[in-house]
Write a structure and sequence with these properties.
Blueprint (H helix, E strand, L loop, with lengths): L1 H36 L1 E12 L4 E5 L5 E5 L2 H6 L5 E7 L2 E9 L1
Antiparallel strand pairs: 1-2, 1-4, 2-3, 4-5
Length: about 100
């Protein structure tokens, strides 16, 4: 009888651990989705490079870079080493306001 009690307690503990792991995973996923869908603005961003296909590489203060497909009018307007304010959503470009050349 005592073995059944111990086995039941261990089974209950295992179920609780699995529940906590699944719940934490959903929270992390929800947080990542929220972060990707949230619009972000970064100042002091530099245009690091432009390629022939309408992709502009923006570099942040911390030296991280992100490649964004930009509209043709933005691509034609920006120059390498332009500084400005980048607004983006995940990897989706929203706008770039030039503050210095």
């Amino acid at each position: 009888m005592e073995h059944f009690f111990i086995a039941g307690a261990l089974l209950l503990l295992l179920a609780l651990i699995i529940f906590i792991i699944v719940r934490a995973g959903k929270g992390i996923k929800r947080g990542v989705i929220k972060q990707v869908l949230t619009e972000h603005t970064a100042s002091n961003v530099i245009v690091a490079a432009k390629n022939q296909k309408g992709i502009v590489t923006f570099q942040f203060k911390n030296t991280n870079k992100v490649d964004c497909a930009v509209p043709e009018c933005v691509y034609n307007d920006v120059q390498v080493n332009d500084k400005g304010i980048l607004t983006f959503q995940g990897l989706r470009f929203i706008r770039f306001e030039i503050t210095g050349r």
